[in-house]
TrEMBL record:
Subcellular location: Cell membrane
Entry's Gene Ontology BP terms: transmembrane transport
UniProt KW Lyase keyword: no
Gene3D superfamilies: MetI-like
Main location: membrane
Bilayer disposition of the protein: Multi-pass membrane protein
This protein's record includes keyword Kinase: no
Residues in ABC transmembrane type-1 domain copies: 91-279
Residues that span the membrane, as ranges: 32-53, 95-117, 129-149, 155-172, 211-237, 257-278
Protein name stated in the entry: ABC transporter permease
Taxonomic path: Bacteria, Bacillati, Actinomycetota, Actinomycetes, Micrococcales
Entries under Pfam families matching the protein: BPD_transp_1
Domain of life: Bacteria
Length: 289
């Protein structure tokens, strides 16, 4: 009987990879669990929206501007369309924008930062470009891009990607310069390892933590960029819904139906909250390591 605890401990699965173990630890904290659960529920609802509402998001009825009820938990809009249905379909669009724009910004920004660290001339030029981008608030930069491209999904993705470049570019460049002076990098250079191999196999894996944490933080910023641009009418265009465009339409009827904006606001808040909790837990796990 005395061997039972040790036997159970030996049977318990252990994660050998320290990086993976560190991230798993982040998702075992209270904030990490709460953020993950909220995000998983929202993603599941967004993915199942066509199954739950096979009629789509543009089904109209005579019940216009009704308040919340059992039949319509978020109420209805000016055309009698169910706001819960439109909020879930809008959530789908917001998630696809974030899922494409933020990873794209991470890859492009990190690449630019590494190029800037390898070449002094390229680094100077890229830093000036990033300084120009960072001088524009995300909403203003998005407005400029959308005025050139026209409103829509693609313009929002480009706007968010471009606005993220300074964050990831500066982080990767700083990480590259700090890691380049470490003993393991100098040893690899002494052995004749190529610069590309040193970056991809040695420096980048050891500098990935702040980039991933910044990515989780920037997701929240990206959500509000989309919402802000759609609220002023430069994002997703009707009848296709997004959380921001629903808020844009709801503000026009705020006196007639005060609860119009309640549903999309709650979904937007929960989406931002989930990523805020996840990014906070990741940041603490990385800094504790």
């Amino acid at each position: 009987m005395a061997d039972t605890p040790s036997f159970a401990a030996n049977r318990r699965p252990r994660v050998k990879n320290p990086v993976l173990r560190r991230y798993l630890t982040a998702f075992r904290t209270a904030r990490g669990i709460a953020g993950s659960v909220i995000l998983l529920v929202l993603v599941a609802l967004a993915l199942l929206a066509p199954v739950l509402y096979p009629g789509g998001y543009d089904v109209q009825s005579a019940e216009s501007l009704r308040g919340p009820s059992l039949a319509h938990p978020f109420g209805t809009d000016q055309l009698g369309r169910d706001l819960l249905t439109r909020s879930l379909f809008g959530l789908r669009i917001d998630l696809t924008i974030v899922a494409v724009a933020v990873p794209l910004g991470m890859v492009v920004g990190t690449t630019l930062g590494l190029i800037g660290a390898l070449s002094r001339v390229a680094g100077t030029v890229l830093q000036r470009v990033l300084d120009v981008i960072i001088g524009f608030p995300g909403i203003v930069l998005g407005m400029c891009i959308i005025l050139i491209m026209g409103p829509g999904w693609s313009a929002l993705v480009i706007a968010i990607t471009v606005s993220s470049l300074p964050t990831f570019g500066r982080l990767s460049r700083a990480a590259m310069l700090s890691q380049a002076q470490r003993e393991y990098v100098m040893a690899a250079r002494t052995l004749g390892v190529s610069r590309v191999t040193i970056i991809t196999r040695h420096i980048l894996p050891n500098a990935i933590d702040p980039i991933l944490v910044a990515g989780a933080v920037f997701v929240v910023h990206a959500i509000f960029i989309e919402a802000g641009l759609s609220i002023i009418g430069l994002g997703i265009q009707p009848p296709e819904p997004s959380l921001g465009s629903l808020l844009n339409q709801g503000m026009r009827y705020i006196t007639q139906a005060p609860t119009y904006v309640l549903g999309p606001t709650v979904v937007l808040f929960l989406l931002a909250l989930s990523f805020s909790l996840i990014s906070d837990s990741l940041n603490k796990a990385v800094n504790r390591a």
